[in-house]
Amino acid sequence: MKTDEEEAEVFMQVSINLFGDFLNPQLVDDALGVAATKSWRKGDKFTGRGSEIIRKTGLWSYRMRRNTKDLTVLVDDFFGKLPMRTDLRKAIPNVEAVRISIFVSSRLDDRNSSSRSLNFSAEQIQIMARSGVELAVDVTSGTEG
């Protein structure tokens, strides 16, 4: 018989988002050595829901997604892609805020319920602290049906 943990289908996403009114996404790409998965400059326009919207601030975002039950491995892989040893607000011009977002979604069948523990290693916490980031964690779970 499978445990609740084995029954759960878990999707995890980790992203880092840098914000700034004068942020130049190409400079962030160059500084970090990684291309953004999503970026824009303040004032850029896009069409959303049929109307033109003007971006209110600049954004550089990098994200990793994976179906996994091991957040620690995903976060280690994520940090391995980025040079996160110094305060990114000081190291990259025009970065006003840095946020790491972790999203965890698990789907259970109707017979099971589950709780999820999110654990960070001491090294991961130190990396986030040195990088000057804010951490946001969203956890959702639902049932098929």
What is the overall number of helices?
Answer: 5
Q: How do the helices and strands follow one another from N- to C-terminus? A: HEHEEEEHHEHE
Write down the overall geometry. Answer: globular
Class inferred from helices and paired strands? alpha+beta
The gyration radius over C-alpha positions equals: 18 Å
Roughly what is the average pLDDT, rounded to an integer? 83
- What's the structural domain tally? 1
Distance, first to last CA: 22 Å
The count of DSSP E runs of length 2 or more, i.e. the number of strands, is 7
Proportion of helical residues: 25-40%
Please state roughly what percent of the residues sit in beta strands, choosing from under 5%, 5-15%, 15-25%, 25-35%, 35-45% or over 45%.
35-45%
Structure description:
The chain is an alpha+beta fold and 145 residues long. It has one domain. Helix content is 26%, strand content 38%. It has 5 helices and 7 strands, in the order αβαββββααβαβ. It has helices at residues 4-7, 25-32, 71-81, 88-91, 122-131, and strands at residues 9-20, 38-40, 45-48, 51-54, 58-67, 97-108, 134-143. The strands form 2 sheets. A 5-stranded mixed sheet has the order 2-5-1-6-7. β6 (97-108), α5 and β7 form a beta-alpha-beta unit. The longest helix is centred in the middle third of the chain and has 11 residues, at 71-81. The radius of gyration is 18 Å and the shape is globular. Mean pLDDT is 83; it is low at 1-7.
